[in-house]
């Protein structure tokens, strides 16, 4: 069960995991968004160690 206030941690963990396993369609994302690379880098320090397991 998710605890209140952990949704951003969950998102960052999923974002990090999808990036690590190559499951992001970076071409599509870069064509349809602004600031993807910056967001990916900015989220990295906020990923709590248990999320990476």
Shape: elongated
Give the SSE string. Answer: HHH
Annotation, overall tally of beta strands: 0
**Total of DSSP H or I helical runs spanning 4+ residues:** 3
Q: Which residues form runs of ≥5 with pLDDT under 50?
A: none
Rg, alpha carbons: 12 Å
Terminal CA distance reads 17 Å
Average pLDDT for all residues: 81
Structurally, how many domains make up the residues? Answer: 1
Structural class: mainly alpha
% residues in beta strands: under 5%
**Largest sheet, if any?**
none
Helix content: 40-55%
3D architecture notes:
This protein has three helices and no strands. The chain is mainly alpha-helical and 53 residues long.
Show the helix and strand layout.
Layout (H helix, E strand, L loop, with lengths): L6 H14 L5 H7 L3 H8 L10
């Amino acid at each position: 069960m998710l605890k209140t206030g952990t949704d951003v941690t969950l998102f960052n963990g999923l974002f990090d995991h999808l990036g690590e396993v190559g499951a992001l369609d970076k071409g599509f994302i870069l064509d349809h968004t602004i600031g993807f690379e910056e967001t990916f880098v900015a989220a990295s320090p906020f990923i709590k160690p248990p999320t990476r397991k």
